[in-house]
Amino acid sequence: MNTFLTNLALIAMLGVLVVLGLGIxxxxxxxxxxxxxxxxxxxxxxxxxxxxxxxxxxLLWWRTTHSG
Length: 68
Hints:
This protein has 68 residues and is mainly alpha-helical. The protein is built from two helices and no strands.
């Protein structure tokens, strides 16, 4: 379970990084692409950050309660 939670947290953090990069790209590109995607990418990034934080909290809880 520990490895599973660690992998999920890493995937969530990688997702945040990818969405953040896409958001920066949309700002740099500008125009209609920015108008269409900037707000959606920001919302997705915030959601992924929340998921990553929850997973990290669960992982920390799991490690402290199930340590040998």
